[in-house]
Amino acid sequence: MHRRVVSLLLAFSFVLASCGASTEGKLGVELFQVTCAACHSADLSGGFGPPIGAGSNAALNLSDDQIGNTIRVGPGRMPSFAELSDEQIASLVEFLRWMQDGS
Predict the structure, then answer these.
(1) Are 8 and 74 in contact (CB under 8 A)?
(2) What would the mean pLDDT of 3-29 be, rounded to a whole number?
(3) DSSP letters along 2-66, please?
(4) Cα–Cα separations (whole angstroms), residue 84 to 15, 40, 43, 93
(5) Could you tell me the pTM of the whole model?
């Protein structure tokens, strides 16, 4: 399982690098691996946490600020990630938006 997660995240990294993703987007991949993948799975299909990737409507009607606040506060059973900097939160939001677009 761990190998699959690492492989998927490496694949995301290469795709982001090849399509000219910003530094923030690349940082978002790394942060997702460390802070989110355990609950949302490496392919964002869900697990303990809900699915948040392409085809999911988890953040469809939320602004970037609302998504960032969700990450920072951790509503419901989701843990708080208040220790993340504004730049790190922005990186995660950019990565999630990119993945939800199905790019």
Answers:
(1) no
(2) 59
(3) HHHHHHHHHHHHHHHHHTT--HHHHHHHHHHHHHTHHHH-TTS--SSSPP-STT--TTTT--HHH
(4) 25, 18, 22, 12
(5) 0.73
Would the CA dihedral through 61, 46, 49, 87 be positive or negative?
negative
pLDDT tens column, 34-93: 999 999 999 889 999 988 888 887 777 899 999 999 999 999 999 999 999 999 999 999
Residue 8 banded pLDDT, cuts 50, 70, 90: low
Q: Which amino acid is at 39?
A: C
- Looking at the domain that runs over 2-100, which CATH code has it been given? 1.10.760.10
Residue 49's closest CA among 27, 25, 28, 70?
70
Supply 40's token pair.
């949302």
| DSSP code, position 77 | T
